[in-house]
Amino acid sequence: MTIRFNNQYLEKVFKNQFVAGKPRYGADVILKFKKTVLKLQFAGNIRELHQLKGLHFEALKGDYAGFHSVRVDGKYRLILEIQEGTVIGIKEILVIEDLTNHYR
Question: What is the CATH classification number for the domain harbouring 76?
Fold first, then answer.
């Protein structure tokens, strides 16, 4: 799948670029975040995301209605938006919006 970032901080973290200031997440969360994004990249379509049970891909409700989430670990969730692809051969684009603490 095609992955885009709507969050500059997370994009820099994923690409191992320098980020000024205090880190928002621990090293273990960042490693799990990167692994989760790679899983999303290698999925062929949304149906495959549903089949990867460890991700717990689901549509969100309430303030996040219209977005989806996947688990990074037991505490953190990656918030995604699904966009339709405009280029031939690209059906869906996952836009990474945020990495949130699910229980806060």
Answer: 3.30.2310.20
